[in-house]
Amino acid sequence: MLIEIVELNWTALKMQLAIVSVCWVIVILSIGIDLHFGIKKSKEQGVYTHSYGLRQTTKKTVQYLTFMAFMLFLDVLNPFWYYFDYRALPLASVFGAIVLTYTEYKSVREKAEDKFRENVEGSAKELYQLLKQNKDFLESLDKKENENKI
Q: Residue 61: CB partners within 8 Å, gap ≥ 6?
């Protein structure tokens, strides 16, 4: 892109910026799709959607857009296109969009299994905490049961 700016080739620059914009929109849409399916799965499993998950999505969005900005930076400063006749393709941004979209695809596909594992672990921990907190009550029930047998 730097070459197009120096040569004042606005047509090629506009095309490159359009491709970069499409890449950014695809990444943002993939984050939105992952958020949608995450909320949907939590509702199906009866788990309340906390602000923690939404904060994680916000952090992920910031990280992904920072990554895409870095890829745009690489595209702008890429001097290698100078040696080729065709140089109007921001490959770093396209590559970044492909990688991040694939990551979100894998996240959507694995989300149900991971949440199930987290729920099983969480349920065991909750059961242990419940038993620990109600230890005295359970012991009194056990004593009453033993007294009734006698």
A: 28, 31
Residues 3-55: tens digit of each pLDDT: 667 778 788 788 888 999 999 999 999 999 988 888 888 777 777 777 777 78
- Count of domains forming the chain: 1
- Is the separation of the CB atoms in 13 and 4 below 8 Å? yes
Closest CA to 76 of 4, 22, 25: 4
Q: What is the pTM of this model?
A: 0.66
Both structure tokens of 21: 């914009």
- CA distance between the termini of the chain: 90
Q: Which domain holds residue 88?
A: 2-111
DSSP tag of 85: S
CB atoms within 10 A of CB 137: 10
